[in-house]
Amino acid sequence: MQEATDKTAVAEAFYREVLQLLNESKIPFMLGGGFALRHYTGIYRDIKDLDLFCKGGDYTRILMFFAEHGFQTELTDVRWLAKIVKGDHFVDLIFNTVNNICTVDDVWFEHSVESELFGMPVRLIPVEEMIWCKIYVQNRERYDGSDVNHAILKQGRTLDWKRLWGRIEQHWHLLFAQILSFQFVYPTERDIIPMWLYDQLLELARGQYNLPTPVEKVCLGPIIDQTQYGVDVKEWGYKVTTMRTV
After folding, report:
1. Considering only 48-52, 144-148, 162-166, which range has the smallest mean pLDDT?
2. Residue 201 belongs to a domain
3. Is the pTM higher than 0.90?
């Protein structure tokens, strides 16, 4: 028990040092992951690392700043992820999502929320952007649908649904599926979903049958799971969607 307590104390000291240095650097960042989920839903989970968010133009500045302060740095995936490492502990530095859709931009910062962690002032990613990112996490190893449902339950009545809709309109099927899931899970809370949005989604769902069938045989599955839909591309003749920043 004492060993576990000591390890926790070391990890928290590392996170506090990272946050303090980031604040000193004056480079804008936000906190996401389990701490943001806890803030918006009240759900507590054991935290194994920190998820820090920044704009794509800033992650190189942050990596160089921490390298100058003796930390190891890693550009894990040039599409979306880097790491700041010290010993056995690390933080994830996120500037996009693996599907190159949820790019961190100025709007994230405009709607971020003030908070505090380990005595350090931080800003949390907006709940709308948290939902936007999580709605695409639907793979075999991890599915974030319950997180989205909990966020809607706790924040839905004050949520900026129009901004969320603007983020995900291109992939409206995913939002529609999530809303139906929410109404199934919480039948007594279905009025949290704005009627204008529900009507718009129903209209889109009906209207798609009046459109011609797409010419290209495309699988959009890799947007939500890049592994499980590999067979569609490799064996069944589907073209993989071009994942781009929107």
Report:
1. 48-52
2. yes
3. yes
